[in-house]
C-alpha cells in the first residue's frame, strides 16, 4: 500500500494564496478538482485491485462470508486522507502541472 503523508485534520486555507497561482480563484479550484478526480480514480483502481485478490468465488446470496483481509484493506483506505485534501496539498506545493488556454485559440 502506498504511503501518503499529509495532515489528517481540517486546515483553513487562504483563498488569496490559492488564487495567486493562477490569478483566479475559480481556475485554481477547477485545477484542484481535476487533480482530486485523478487521485480518486487512482486510489479506487488500487483498492479494487487489492480487494479482488481476496475475493471469494461463492455467489450464493444465503452465505455471506466475512473476509478479514478485505475489511482491513477497506479500513486502511477509509483512514487515508481524502483526494481533495491531497489535491490541495499538491497544488500549493507546485506539484501540479497545468496550462491556461488563451481565449483566441481553438483546440478540438
UniProtKB/TrEMBL annotation:
Keywords linked to the UniProt accession: DNA-directed RNA polymerase, Transcription
Catalytic activity reported: RNA(n) + a ribonucleoside 5'-triphosphate = RNA(n+1) + diphosphate
Enzyme class: transferase
Cross-referenced InterPro entries: Pol_omega/Rpo6/RPB6, RPB6/omega-like_sf
Gene Ontology MF, one: DNA-directed RNA polymerase activity
Single GO BP term: DNA-templated transcription
UniProt record similarity statement: Belongs to the RNA polymerase subunit omega family.
The protein's name: DNA-directed RNA polymerase subunit omega
Amino acid at each position: 500500500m502506498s504511503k501518503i503523508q499529509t495532515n489528517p485534520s481540517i486546515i483553513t486555507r487562504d483563498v488569496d494564496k490559492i488564487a495567486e497561482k493562477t490569478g483566479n480563484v475559480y481556475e485554481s479550484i477547477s485545477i484542484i478538482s481535476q487533480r482530486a478526480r485523478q487521485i480518486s480514480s487512482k486510489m479506487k483502481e488500487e483498492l479494487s485491485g487489492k480487494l479482488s485478490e481476496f475475493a471469494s468465488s461463492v455467489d450464493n446470496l444465503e452465505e455471506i462470508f466475512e473476509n478479514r483481509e478485505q475489511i482491513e484493506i477497506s479500513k486502511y483506505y477509509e483512514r487515508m486522507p481524502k483526494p481533495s485534501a491531497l489535491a490541495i496539498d499538491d497544488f500549493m506545493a507546485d506539484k501540479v502541472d497545468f496550462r491556461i488556454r488563451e481565449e483566441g485559440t481553438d483546440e478540438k
